[in-house]
Write a structure and sequence with these properties.
Blueprint (H helix, E strand, L loop, with lengths): L1 H31 L9 E5 L14 E5 L12 H17 L36 H4 L11 H11 L6 H4 L5 E5 L11 H5 L3 E5 L8 H4 L5 E4 L16 E4 L4 H11 L25 E3 L3 H11 L16 H12 L2 E5 L31 H13 L4 E2 L5
Parallel strand pairs: 3-4, 3-8, 4-5, 5-6, 6-7, 8-9
Antiparallel strand pairs: 1-2
Helix pairs in contact: 4-8, 9-10
């Protein structure tokens, strides 16, 4: 009889443990998907560039409001219209109609506060439920990539930062660009002070620590931009794919499963055939940041949601967009091209001159520069190298 009572109590305790575990897991998943519930294209920042998000203390903030410019814009949905109507009604109630926005949709007077729900950095196993990316093909979404992404996530099994970074109450992030403006600035120690250091493509660290630092938290790249020499990889960092075309997801599957990379998969130049990272150190960047940077922030042509001439944001702008969603303080270094100095170095790690820049088919550098200048002027981001 005593054994039966013991077994019954043990089963009850086990059931209670499973129920509590399920509730905890469900609460975490809902936290990641909160951004799906908000259709308003609004971001809130305080006076030093902190995003206001759930679970963070609210501070005096400034706001960037980025309304769609035409009905075919992906953000022109009922939720956006409703948010804009509420904003206009609030403005009307406050007094006479005074112009508050410039032609790009940024506030002229940074004295309002609105709330935005952040998008998660990386794809997880619920990616097919994310409406904002489900209906767009790469680079603006995941349409047609379900099987590849599912296979990749089955191997990586991790969709977040490190536990230590996830537990921070205030995340300080810096995006390190590849511009020659970083050379001879001796910013290495200052860059390494940030909690999250993001580097782009194959920009080297070894030998340049004095100017660019030695710490790397995330290295975001696509196949053609990835480091090809294994010895050039830093020891500790997460490898993050930014998928600009369907071949990129196929390439990442090769990398994760250590399969042979096929050169016949449509890459525009040679790609890395191996990445010295274990599957749990690999992530897929949420493509919503590419979509938002292009259409909501920079204002590039929508082109029916397809890759076209001049409507692909640079990886730097995409990384900044990601940081605005997920960091409390955002800084940049190594951004900005000065075409008035044709003999200045284009990149901090090589001798190519600024004059080598040609008109880009995919990017609109001028529009991106306008966007980044707005962020710096509004003190949403801090530019350590003053290149923007």
């Amino acid at each position: 009889m005593g054994l039966l009572v013991f077994m019954r109590n043990l089963l009850l305790a086990l059931c209670l443990f499973l129920v509590l575990g399920f509730l905890y897991y469900s609460a975490w998943k809902l936290h990641l998907l909160r951004w799906e519930d908000s259709n308003s294209m609004v971001l809130s920042f305080d006076s030093v560039g902190h995003t206001i998000g759930s679970g963070r203390r609210e501070r005096k903030s400034v706001t960037l409001v980025l309304p769609p410019s035409n009905p075919s814009h992906p953000a022109a949905d009922p939720g956006t219209d409703r948010a804009q109507k509420e904003t206009k009604e609030h403005m009307a109630a406050a007094g006479p109609a005074i112009p508050k926005y410039d032609k790009l949709g940024f506030l002229l007077n940074l004295d309002s506060k609105l709330f935005s729900k952040p998008a998660p950095m990386f794809l997880d196993d619920s990616f097919r439920k994310w409406a904002r990316i489900r209906d767009f093909v790469p680079p603006f979404g995941i349409k047609g990539q379900d099987n590849l992404i599912k296979a990749i996530l089955a191997a990586t099994k991790d969709y977040r930062l490190t536990p230590a970074l996830d537990s921070l109450s205030c995340r300080r992030c810096i995006i390190v660009g590849n511009g020659g403006v970083l050379a001879n600035k001796s910013l290495g120690l200052k860059i390494d002070e940030y909690d999250i250091v993001v580097r782009l493509n194959s920009a080297p660290v070894k030998g340049f620590e004095k100017d660019v630092g030695g710490k790397t938290t995330l290295r975001i790249t696509y196949p053609e931009g990835a480091i090809q020499k294994m010895e050039q990889y830093e020891k500790d960092s997460l490898f993050v794919l930014a998928g600009f075309k369907w071949q990129d997801f196929k390439w990442l599957k090769y990398i994760v499963y250590k399969e042979k990379v096929s050169a016949a998969d449509g890459f525009w130049k040679s790609v890395a055939t191996r990445v010295p990272r274990e599957p749990h150190e690999i992530r897929i960047l949420n493509p919503y940041f590419i979509q938002e940077a292009a259409f909501s922030f920079i204002g590039l042509p929508f082109n029916n949601g397809l890759m076209g001439r001049g409507n692909i944001p640079t990886l730097g702008s995409v990384a900044i967009t990601m940081a605005l969603h997920n960091c409390d303080e955002v800084a940049v270094a190594g951004f900005g091209y000065d075409m008035s100095l044709p003999n200045a170095p284009l990149h901090y790690y090589e001798n190519i001159k600024m004059s080598a820049i040609k008109e880009s088919w995919t990017h609109n550098i001028q529009r991106e520069k306008e966007f980044l200048r707005k962020l710096v002027k509004a003190r949403v981001i801090t530019d350590l190298t003053s290149g923007i």
